Amino acid sequence: MRMSLASAAAALVVLGAAAAAQQLQPLAPPPNFDAVQIKTADLGNRTYMLEGEGGNITVAVTDGGVIMVDSQFAPLHDKIKAAIAALTPQPIRYLIITHFHRDHTGGNEAFGKDGATIVAHENVKSRLASGSRNGLTGNVVPPAPAIALPKQTFTDEVIIRLQGRAAAVRHIPAVHTDGDAYVYFADANVLATGDIVTFGRYPNIDFVYGGSIDGMIRGVDILLQAANDATRIVPGHGPVGTKAMVRDYRAMLVTARDRVQALISAGKTEDEAVAAKPNADYDAKFGVDARATGNFVRVVYRSLKK
Ligand SMILES: [Zn+2]
To answer: Rounded to two decimals, what is the model's pTM?
Structure first.
């Protein structure tokens, strides 16, 4: 009797592990960093967006140094530094981080060594210090070294001031992760959203670390209030945009949420929901591959199921 109970328990553990393993999705192919070029867009008033590989970077230049938002992947540090040096000889004084994901924080270590003060929500520091695991792929990011961790943390908001310029950094709880912040440069009317907003592609939603589809919609509503019709929006990924584009993006999120919820209510499994291609119209509009379209359904499904 004891034996059969024990083996039944062992069988359950194996089944559980198999079910968890089945849900893992393949990793995206690694970017070819050697081929990446950093493109600089002038947003006016000595404020710029830098696009390379990974999350967009915002740069605000002053006569006493540079305020930078997000740091992309580690191997791009030298190229990003060169792109900023083409704008100003001033050093990078502050590196503000919108959330802990590696495509936005990979450069922290090198920019930290260069002398930048890293600023982020306290949960970003915790995630970077402990390391993290991707809920869809199982990919593990190891703990970051001390120099890559935020030196200055906040809970609700902080204003970084440098030579008459100001970056207003505000936290929104439980949106894309549990440590998201957006950054507003009022003198340039530029709003850096981090991954709360992406243009031309689906967002990721980190359902393991506090993100959810309903949180994303709530976060976008806060950004819509922070922006006006003339605001230049620097999204987490994709081109510079406008408040009208953020409204369209919000409509997409709501539509996708309702479609996936209808599939859940009809008793569909996650794989069945993916196979149903509920967002075929947006898939075509974005022109993204099956992996990206499937993963978006999965993160919406899992955040609604939670
Ligand atoms: Zn992200």
So the answer is: 0.92
